[in-house]
Design brief:
The protein has one domain. The longest helix is centred in the C-terminal third of the chain and has 27 residues. The chain has 246 residues and is mainly α. The termini are close together. Helix 3 packs antiparallel against helix 9, helix 3 crosses helix 11 and helix 8 packs antiparallel against helix 9.
Length: 246
Amino acid sequence: MADINFIFLVLFFLVIVQSVVGVGILVIGTPFLLILNFNIIDILSILLPISILTSLLNLIFFKFNKKKLKMKINSNTKRLFFFVCLPSIFVGLYLMEIFQDTINFKYLVSFIIIVSIILTKIKKLILNVNNKIRIIFLSLIGVVHGLTNSGGTLLSLFMSSHLEKNNSRYSITFFYFFLALFQFLIFNYLFNFNQNNFDYMFILVSLPLAVFLGNYLIKYINKEKFRNLITILSLIACVFLVTNNN
C-alpha cells in the first residue's frame, strides 16, 4: 500500500484539475487507486465524496460569478440528463454488484478510458447528432459511470460537443456533480457506505484550498492544456493498470 501522504498529494492535485476542467478526480483517481490495489468498492467510497464536494464548491463559486461568466444550461440537455443518464447509473452499479468478484476492473477501466479518449479526438462526429443518438449516448454514460467510475470523459465529450466553449466548464461541473451524487446515493443503497481507514479530514482541510487554487489558476493557464494533461495521465494510468499483475 502506498504512503497515505502520497495519496493525499495526488488527490489534492486532482481536485485542482477538476476545478479547472470539471472532471478529474474519478477519471484519474479510479485507475490510480486500482494500481495501488484498492478494490472498486473502496475506491468509490473514497473518491465519490471528494468529487461531490469539489463540484459543489465549484458550483458555489460559479453562483457568485454567474453574471460575470454568463452561464446558461440548455433546458433540453438538462431534461435528457436527468431522465436518461441518471437512471442508467443504477444499471451500471447493479452490474457492479453482480460481477464485482468476476470483472477485472483494471482491464475494464483501461478499455473505457482509451475508448473515451479516442472519441474525444473524433468528437466532430457527434456534433450534429439527433436526439435519439444523444439519448443512447447519455444512457451509455450512465451505465459506464456506474460500473467503472470512468464516465467523466464521456460526459465532458457530450457537453463540449454542443455547448459554447465559455459555458462548457460550468455545464460539465453542474452535471458531474449530479452524476457523482446520484451514483453515491445508489452506491450507498446497494453496498452501504464502506467504512474504510481513509482519513476524511483531508476533505475538510485540504479540499477547499485545492478548489481555490484551481479557480485562481484558471485565470493564468490554458484549459485545453489541462484537458490534454488529463488525457496523458489517463493513458499512463492505463499502461500501469494493464501491466500491473499484482
